[in-house]
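User: Now give one protein:

AI:
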Amino acid sequence: MNIAIIGAGFSGCLLYNKLIKENHKITIFEKSRGTGGRLSTKYINGKFCDHGTPYFEAKNQIFIDFCNKLVKQKILKKYKTVYIPTNGINKVCSSLIDKKDLKTKVKITTCKYENEKWTLIDIQNNVYKDFDILLITIPAVQILELNINLNEKIKQELSSIKYDSIFTLILHKQKNLPLHKGLKNINLFKKIIDNSKKYNYDNFSSFVLHTNEYFSTKNNEKTKEKLEEKVIKKLKKLHIEIDKDFIILPHLWKYAFAKNHLKKDFIFDKKQFLGICGDYFYSKNIEASFLSSTKLAGNI
């Protein structure tokens, strides 16, 4: 079968990996520059900077087995129940696919099902035809923004999913720079990741400051530049300043975490051969995404 997958995050890449073994023809459409989604890595001066999910835990045995395979491939390393990337967390995704089947910087806006075939149209009005199955792995909110004929039950289910946002600031410099100690003692930040320590870099500093869900979600209609200004102003009021030598890169994950989930493994509409999976089925994390994608692939 000829299969289209929208989204090259963990769910989309895992679906590809499972289905390509059945000799299907598969094309993945991704609006950004590469795989990863929230398992995202920036490459700064040849160094890895994980600015989305920095690591994850595994509790389900099937997911543990999957992660342990990535440890053997030296894509991950294990510390107790936590899996940490060895060369950028987006390698978890890119290792699962053949890049020749990936179309990047392609934002699909319209999906039409006619004569038992799917046709996709991107924001540039490019047309991609003759898909037997369409699988969508992007956040529920973004699915509802597509020009696509969904049945009412699916619309209601997707509409029920609500999200928290996460705003991040990447701080980096091609030399060793410490963070202001006060940054670790304020509740504005949910966590602070030291990428330079994680990857044992010398003469390179890389930190990612993750603001908490309340601040991020409350301000998620602002641009990332305005959010950066707001954070800096808040810090100054606390007499905390970020070293002026740091280069700062802001990023907003508008749909970072699902607040709730659907009590099912995936959605599959047999009438249209349309499947939906992700991290908002039965739970709300990377492991849930793995299980949802695995079960949808098995259903197909």
